[in-house]
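A.,

Following up on our hallway conversation. C-alpha coordinates first:
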Protein backbone atom coordinates (compact mmCIF):
# COMPACT_ATOMS: atom_id res chain seq x y z
CA UNK A 1 0.00 0.00 0.00
CA UNK A 2 1.38 3.38 -0.91
CA UNK A 3 1.66 5.76 1.97
CA UNK A 4 1.75 9.47 1.27
CA UNK A 5 3.41 10.74 4.38
CA UNK A 6 2.63 14.46 4.27
CA UNK A 7 0.31 16.56 2.19
CA UNK A 8 -0.02 20.36 2.28
CA UNK A 9 -2.45 21.03 5.17
CA UNK A 10 -5.03 22.95 3.12
CA UNK A 11 -6.64 22.55 -0.29
CA UNK A 12 -8.40 25.84 -1.09
CA UNK A 13 -5.27 27.95 -1.67
CA UNK A 14 -1.98 27.57 -3.50
CA UNK A 15 0.87 27.09 -1.01
CA UNK A 16 2.81 30.31 -0.41
CA UNK A 17 5.48 29.95 2.25
CA UNK A 18 6.20 33.28 3.94
CA UNK A 19 8.70 31.82 6.40
CA UNK A 20 10.60 28.75 5.25
CA UNK A 21 13.11 26.44 6.90
CA UNK A 22 15.75 28.45 8.77
CA UNK A 23 13.19 31.25 9.10
CA UNK A 24 14.78 34.47 10.36
CA UNK A 25 11.74 36.14 11.94
CA UNK A 26 10.12 34.05 14.65
CA UNK A 27 11.48 30.53 14.07
CA UNK A 28 14.81 31.02 15.76
CA UNK A 29 16.78 27.81 15.57
CA UNK A 30 16.84 27.33 19.32
CA UNK A 31 14.72 29.21 21.82
CA UNK A 32 14.35 28.08 25.44
CA UNK A 33 15.81 24.73 24.39
CA UNK A 34 13.27 24.28 21.60
CA UNK A 35 14.46 24.05 18.01
CA UNK A 36 12.11 25.68 15.49
CA UNK A 37 14.44 25.46 12.48
CA UNK A 38 11.95 23.48 10.39
CA UNK A 39 8.73 25.33 11.16
CA UNK A 40 6.82 26.73 8.15
CA UNK A 41 4.43 29.68 7.80
CA UNK A 42 1.90 29.47 4.96
CA UNK A 43 0.15 32.68 3.94
CA UNK A 44 -3.61 32.01 4.09
CA UNK A 45 -6.74 34.15 4.36
CA UNK A 46 -8.55 33.97 7.70
CA UNK A 47 -11.12 31.19 7.70
CA UNK A 48 -9.23 28.81 5.39
CA UNK A 49 -10.09 25.16 6.19
CA UNK A 50 -7.07 23.24 7.51
CA UNK A 51 -6.69 19.51 6.89
CA UNK A 52 -4.46 16.94 8.56
CA UNK A 53 -1.15 16.68 6.70
CA UNK A 54 -0.79 13.13 8.01
CA UNK A 55 -3.06 10.81 9.98
CA UNK A 56 -2.75 10.38 13.72
CA UNK A 57 -4.34 11.09 17.09
CA UNK A 58 -5.25 14.45 18.57
CA UNK A 59 -2.86 15.11 21.44
CA UNK A 60 -3.43 18.83 22.04
CA UNK A 61 -6.41 21.01 21.36
CA UNK A 62 -6.52 24.73 22.14
CA UNK A 63 -9.34 26.69 20.60
CA UNK A 64 -10.75 29.10 23.15
CA UNK A 65 -8.34 32.01 22.80
CA UNK A 66 -9.45 35.39 21.51
CA UNK A 67 -5.96 36.86 21.80
CA UNK A 68 -4.30 38.07 18.64
CA UNK A 69 -1.28 40.26 17.95
CA UNK A 70 -0.64 41.63 14.47
CA UNK A 71 2.41 43.69 15.37
CA UNK A 72 6.10 43.01 14.88
CA UNK A 73 7.52 43.36 18.40
CA UNK A 74 8.72 39.96 19.61
CA UNK A 75 8.65 40.96 23.28
CA UNK A 76 5.10 42.25 22.99
CA UNK A 77 4.08 39.12 21.06
CA UNK A 78 4.99 36.75 23.90
CA UNK A 79 1.79 37.11 25.90
CA UNK A 80 -0.65 36.18 23.15
CA UNK A 81 -2.09 32.68 23.31
CA UNK A 82 -2.81 31.02 19.95
CA UNK A 83 -5.36 28.39 19.10
CA UNK A 84 -3.69 25.20 17.93
CA UNK A 85 -4.11 21.49 17.38
CA UNK A 86 -1.46 18.78 17.56
CA UNK A 87 -1.68 15.34 15.99
CA UNK A 88 0.62 12.51 16.99
CA UNK A 89 1.64 10.16 14.15
CA UNK A 90 2.32 6.45 14.42
CA UNK A 91 6.09 7.02 14.47
CA UNK A 92 5.80 9.30 17.52
CA UNK A 93 6.34 12.56 15.62
CA UNK A 94 3.84 15.34 16.17
CA UNK A 95 2.32 17.83 13.74
CA UNK A 96 1.45 21.25 15.15
CA UNK A 97 -1.06 23.56 13.42
CA UNK A 98 -1.27 27.08 14.86
CA UNK A 99 -3.22 30.33 14.50
CA UNK A 100 -6.62 28.74 14.22
CA UNK A 101 -9.98 30.41 14.62
CA UNK A 102 -11.60 30.35 18.03
CA UNK A 103 -13.98 27.38 18.28
CA UNK A 104 -13.04 26.01 14.87
CA UNK A 105 -11.52 22.74 16.12
CA UNK A 106 -14.52 21.85 18.25
CA UNK A 107 -16.75 22.90 15.36
CA UNK A 108 -15.21 19.91 13.57
CA UNK A 109 -16.29 17.69 16.51
CA UNK A 110 -12.72 16.87 17.46
CA UNK A 111 -11.66 15.91 20.95
CA UNK A 112 -8.46 14.83 22.66
CA UNK A 113 -7.50 11.30 21.57
CA UNK A 114 -9.62 11.24 18.42
CA UNK A 115 -8.15 9.56 15.34
CA UNK A 116 -7.79 11.91 12.38
CA UNK A 117 -7.29 10.73 8.79
CA UNK A 118 -4.94 12.41 6.38
CA UNK A 119 -6.85 15.13 4.54
CA UNK A 120 -9.59 15.37 7.16
CA UNK A 121 -10.63 18.92 8.12
CA UNK A 122 -9.44 19.85 11.59
CA UNK A 123 -10.11 23.59 11.90
CA UNK A 124 -9.90 26.96 10.18
CA UNK A 125 -7.26 29.64 10.25
CA UNK A 126 -8.10 32.66 12.36
CA UNK A 127 -6.97 35.59 14.44
CA UNK A 128 -5.10 33.98 17.32
CA UNK A 129 -1.60 34.23 18.70
CA UNK A 130 1.21 36.15 17.00
CA UNK A 131 0.00 36.64 13.41
CA UNK A 132 2.39 39.44 12.48
CA UNK A 133 1.70 41.35 9.28
CA UNK A 134 0.35 38.44 7.22
CA UNK A 135 -2.46 36.02 8.16
CA UNK A 136 -0.88 32.57 8.05
CA UNK A 137 -0.84 29.01 9.30
CA UNK A 138 2.17 28.06 11.42
CA UNK A 139 2.90 24.39 10.74
CA UNK A 140 5.66 22.19 12.05
CA UNK A 141 6.45 18.53 12.66
CA UNK A 142 8.51 17.79 15.72
CA UNK A 143 9.79 15.15 18.06
CA UNK A 144 9.63 15.59 21.78
CA UNK A 145 12.88 15.06 23.66
CA UNK A 146 14.16 15.68 27.16
CA UNK A 147 17.25 17.56 28.29
CA UNK A 148 19.51 16.26 31.06
CA UNK A 149 17.22 17.83 33.67
CA UNK A 150 14.24 15.96 32.27
CA UNK A 151 12.71 19.09 30.79
CA UNK A 152 10.60 18.44 27.70
CA UNK A 153 11.96 20.00 24.53
CA UNK A 154 10.83 20.26 20.97
CA UNK A 155 12.94 19.36 17.94
CA UNK A 156 11.40 20.22 14.58
CA UNK A 157 12.09 17.94 11.59
CA UNK A 158 12.37 18.76 7.90
CA UNK A 159 9.61 17.13 5.88
CA UNK A 160 8.57 16.94 2.24
CA UNK A 161 5.05 17.18 0.87
CA UNK A 162 3.86 14.76 -1.80
CA UNK A 163 1.73 17.48 -3.43
CA UNK A 164 4.19 20.38 -3.30
CA UNK A 165 7.41 20.51 -5.28
CA UNK A 166 8.34 24.12 -4.49
CA UNK A 167 11.09 25.51 -2.31
CA UNK A 168 11.10 25.03 1.46
CA UNK A 169 14.20 26.87 2.68
CA UNK A 170 13.80 30.54 3.52
CA UNK A 171 17.00 31.72 1.85
CA UNK A 172 16.04 30.02 -1.41
CA UNK A 173 12.50 31.42 -1.29
CA UNK A 174 13.87 34.91 -0.65
CA UNK A 175 16.24 34.59 -3.57
CA UNK A 176 13.49 33.39 -5.88
CA UNK A 177 10.98 36.11 -4.95
CA UNK A 178 13.52 38.90 -4.56
CA UNK A 179 11.97 42.16 -3.40
CA UNK A 180 8.50 40.70 -4.04
CA UNK A 181 8.87 38.25 -1.15
CA UNK A 182 6.15 38.98 1.41
CA UNK A 183 7.56 39.69 4.83
CA UNK A 184 5.92 38.52 8.00
CA UNK A 185 7.33 40.55 10.83
CA UNK A 186 10.13 42.78 9.63
CA UNK A 187 9.26 45.99 7.77
CA UNK A 188 12.78 45.81 6.40
CA UNK A 189 11.98 42.45 4.80
CA UNK A 190 14.90 40.65 6.45
ZN1 LIG B 1 5.41 30.54 12.46
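Then the amino acids I'd put at each of the 190 positions:
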Amino acid sequence: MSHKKYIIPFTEEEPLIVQGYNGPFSHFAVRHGNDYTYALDFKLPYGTPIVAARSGKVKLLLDSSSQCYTGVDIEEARGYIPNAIEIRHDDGSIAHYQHLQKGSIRAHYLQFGDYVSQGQEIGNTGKSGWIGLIPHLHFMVYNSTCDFMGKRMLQTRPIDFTNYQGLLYHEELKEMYGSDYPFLFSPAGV
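The first helix runs from residue 74 to 77. Curious whether your intuition agrees with the design.

B.
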